[in-house]
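Hey L., structure's done. Input below.
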Amino acid sequence: MGIFKALWRVLVRFYHRCSSPPHFYAIAGKMLPWCVGLTLTLFAVGIIWGLGFAPSVSKQGEVYRIIYIHVPAATLSMLAYVFVTIAAAIGMVWRMKMAQIVAVSAIPIGTGLTLVALLTGMIWGHPTWGTYWEWNDPRMLLVFIMFLLFIGLVVINNAIEDKTTAANAIAILSISGLVTVPLIKMSTSDEFQKIVGKTIHQGQTEMFNKNQMTPEIAYIWLIMIFAFLLFFVTVLLMRIRNEILEREQNTKWVKEKIMS
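Output:
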């Protein structure tokens, strides 16, 4: 029990340090070089291996390679929306400034990832399904709705000058739209399609069956997912540091840092 109490005290201390803008700014600064290096390394390995050397698959041929961009971007876009919602909710309920800053900083990244997912999906969809876009497809429509929600969050943050009011409005909108994330995940299930209609997306495409999903393809896929995850963390830390400096520009510690 003594070990667990000590661990809990360490976690509580770390939590309180991270809730302080000066300490978070310093911690993020120490993490950034490592995050940038790992992100660039994983992207280089994944893109070169995936686009240049990975084996092709039957029927889809070379066009399937966009999966190494599309799937990680789509996965991270949903995680980003959940992340924004949790951070915004914490900021609204406990009035934590750092949680509000984290939420605001993550919104543009999630917006960009969702846009990449939509565009790469369209590029993949035309040779695969014969169409760039299908409004009757539940998954396409739900991802587009999530993109509009992100745009709404961006507009709110830019339109409302008072940071606290903007943070609360962001929390309310993000919580209201959170249902889109599980709906996107369920949209390829048979039960869901019986209710809302057939989707052209497959729950398990041919390239993902046991014969097509070779270890090499799986490794590249995982590398790219981690690359996108680290990209999200890296850009988030950069944006948080900039947001902290903007909000704390009149404080003593920021003025000292600028002068140093």
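DSSP finds ten helices and no strands in the chain. The longest helix spans residues 21-53.

-- N.
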